[in-house]
Amino acid sequence: MVEKKTVKTEKEFEIKDVTICDATQQMLEKARRDGVETAFDRAANMKACPIGAESACCKHCAMGPCRLSSKDPYGKVGVCGATIDTIQARNFARMVATGAAAHTDHGMAMVDLFREVVNGHITEYRIKDVGKLEAVAQSIGIATENRSVKEIATDLYKELERTYTQVEGEIPFAKRVPEKTLETWRKLDIVPRGAMREIMELMHRTHIGVDQHYENITKQSSRTALADGWGGSMVATEISDILFGTPTPVAVDVNMGVLKEDHVNVIIHGHEPNMFESMLVSVNEPTLVQAAKEAGAQGINLVGMCCSGAEMMSRHGVPHAGNFMSTEAILVTGAVDVMCVDIQCIKQGLVSVADCYGTPLITTNTRAHIEGATHIEFNDHDPQKCTDEVVIKAINRFKNRSMAIEIPNIRNTGIHGFSHEYINYMLGGSFRGSYTPLNENIINGRIRGVAGVVGCTNPRIKQDWAHVELVKELIKNDVLVLQTGCSQISLAKEGLCTPEASYLAGPGLREVCETVGMPPVLGMGSCVDNSRILIAASEMVRVGGLGTSIADLPAVGAAPEWMSEKAISIGQYFVASGVFTVFGVTFPIVKETKFHKLLFEGLEQQGLGKWGFSADPYEMAKMMIAHIDKKRKALGIDKARERVLMDMSDRREIEAA
Asked: The pTM is what?
């Protein structure tokens, strides 16, 4: 039996009010019976700081912390004289810097791995997708004809290293940005030079007594965020594809029912694919499989959670157990024999929950230890040393299970793995791969526009609800939805990632989905894979007929349940790329201030995108659809019309109304 632990609960919430996920509800009921606390309990009993939530607090020096009033934002200033706009811009900038640093560090780790593989110092991994290698190299001007794989790969890693270390010039993937968009960036002086320089400079600017103009701080926030989206994140995605394979659609089971009581259950949770790739080898190692059977198991069951789970689900069809807000709840099943984590979105509270059920929680990354967890260092030069040891611990735990197991019998099958390359093939075929059918169906009105709905789950809002309701509204109105990260899992659990879900779409989108055989919701991978959406947007511009910059596209973005600083960086790089981006739950800003006006109006006037906010998914959908309609009108495609055959020159001649 689970040893009862005292939960200091001042307020007991209705479980059905905090999540629409049936499996998570079932496990929260069990956690309550077992006396186990989760993030849902802590959120119910810890009121969010209202001053911090509105970014009216400055704690960047020891003269403070200084608290300003959101009700009278210009009534006073900080001790140093900082205005509400300076304080908000600094706080926002530091969120961008931290979020960009997270993705950039991940991307740089992938470059390090790629370099070692190319130079033969790591032999456990290899280049699996030579076609992707050549395509990425060509996209940034590296010659590939009559050259060996090693020659191309060597030039590529050296070029991509500039993404991080360069101090002047433009990052390599700036070459992928539509010409008109890049022209706007150059005019505004926000083209990233190198990620390390941008993050360093942004942090310097937010120090006491340095940059004290909200517009100038925001300019550097944009440049830093772009170094994430078109730099760190994009590099991480592209190298992962080159080394481990570019995703293609695969049917995958999602939800807690993927656990198997008669198997050793190994859960991998985090963000870096190399550890998960090595674990895939370890769980299939014959000696370890035999050891599991000798311990009484039928085999070893590998399952993913959060973003590395989404990446492996898309790339290899590995089952996925749930998103961020279900990571504690799944331990309550008692069936998890080990949870192995690396970086990002790992709750420290997992330690106490895992301890309650005798589940080893193992950290593997040198950047991310957790007090109370077991650390087994993962080394790319000898990866199986770590992953084999993790599996051995899981087998030992299975052998010594001592409590009742309760696994929700809920599994949802969906289709995942819609990379940019596959979408190109899916729409145009092997020999005529092209986004032309997508653009044509946007022009003729069958597809109203495109929305990227991404991001986390947050206990300050009912889990999964905003994602699901927003997407239902969008597809009902003929908006094609692209998904990444925890949002993708929210939709998969509701059955929206299957071709059969097209019955929920509007008549135009439904016709396209049924013709192509695709879902109305396309799952693209983990949160760094938002870069796939940027590439897709660029390709829509290149194909023609929908304007000359990303800002012209009838395209929008949203993170209905965001919670991390990475999300703010992602949002800012979409806005700086030209996309109207709406966040839910909360937003760190005081309304009716100059900084608020800059983010929600001023950036768009500069030729970029703009921010939006609503905690209501239905209102969010209205805002996004209205923006799509505005862009359609500007392109002169707002009126329904019969299909006509047009060539490329015809499409490029479509002018704004």
From this structure: 0.94
How many CB atoms within 10 Å of residue 33? Answer: 12
**How high is the pLDDT of residue 654?**
46
- Give dist(CA 393, CA 499) in Å, integer: 40
Q: With a cut of 90, say whether residue 280 has pLDDT above it.
A: yes
End-to-end CA distance of the chain: 69
Q: Collapse the DSSP code of 74 into the 3-class scheme (helix H, G, I; strand E, B; otherwise coil) and give the result.
A: coil
Q: Is 346 helix (H, G, I), strand (E, B) or coil?
A: coil
Q: What pLDDT score does 318 carry? A: 97
pLDDT of residue 648: 55
Residue with structure tokens 């009581």? 261
Residue recorded with tokens 């509701």? 494
Q: Would you list the DSSP string of 271-326?
A: S-HHHHHHHHHHTT-HHHHHHHHHTT-S-EEEEEEHHHHHHHHHHH---B---GGG
Q: Please tell me whether residue 251 adopts helix, strand or coil conformation.
A: strand
Residues paired with 582 in a beta bridge: 558, 612
Check: CB of residue 374 under 8 Å from CB of residue 362: yes
**How many secondary structure helices (H) and strands (E) does the chain include?**
26, 15
Q: How far apart (Å, rounded) are the C-alpha atoms in residues 594 and 74?
A: 10
- Using alpha carbons, select from 214, 87, 134 the residue that is nearest to residue 598: 214
| Model pLDDT for residues 49-101, shown as the tens digit of each residue | 999 999 999 999 999 999 999 999 999 999 999 999 999 999 999 999 999 99
Q: Which two tokens stand for residue 192?
A: 């990233």
